[in-house]
Amino acid sequence: MSWDFALILFVLLVVTGLVWCLDIFVLRARRRAAAEQAVANAQYSAAGMDAQAAEQLRQEARDKALRPSWWVEYSVSFFPVILFVFVLRSFVVEPFRIPSGSMLPTLEDGDLILVNKFEYGIRLPIIDKKIIDIGSPKRGDVMVFRYPVDPSVDYIKRVVGLPGDEVFYQNKVLSINGKEVAHVRNGDYFEPDRSAYVGRYTEQLGTVSHSILLNKQAPQDFMPISDYPYRNNCQYLVNGVRCKVPPGHYFMMGDNRDNSLDSRYWGFVPDRNIVGRAFFIWMNFGKPSRIGFFH
After folding, report:
1. DSSP letters along 121-143, please?
2. Which residues have a catalytic role annotated?
3. What is the pTM (predicted TM-score) of this model?
């Protein structure tokens, strides 16, 4: 969806940019020549008029000849705006809307967020090819990416496994490289999708301390939804899954652990699918108090 908008924006940028260049290097000179001819014709027509009327006639003729066509005027006016939006959205920050509760309690359905587009490297718009390697995702980052099963859809999850990590999730316990990731109970949370309270826990992933939701009593059954790339890197067990993250890929999980369709089901996110790191809620029209940074 965002890819379609980026393509439309790029097409508009190219079209208005071409018209802008055409106007600067060709059309303006033609209009100036036409204006000079129009003034000369008006001068001839103004013979016998008083000075003020003759000057007004010449000015009207000049203004009419210098006025660009409507399509040129609109293109020249909108080109700087489209250029600014395109550069901002492609290389600096991009807005997204949270469509589900898979990242509760960190992000809620309806949150409008900003995504840092340069932290993980500068990528060419549309083709998403990385041209400048600035940094890589870190464990604990909240990341937006194109869904590997359907790249036209944007997903948002938390980075759990880095390239080379062994991720083991069984009986609601997460382990990375053989070390259990501790989580501490921090009260209850009312989950709107299920209209029920669920346990809220604090978890530490790398340097990031964040909240997750867990229902310790709810059953779990992990079965892959497709034969995804590097499927042999994962072993599905009773009440769990163990995966070895391949090079250039990441293992993603939602903070709402019992209600998230993530890497446990569809595999790994390749680096080429990365959009950026989510970091700020700029609006939630139902809950304006949610505006601010998050981890």
Report:
1. -EE-TTT--EEE------TT-EE
2. 102, 157
3. 0.87
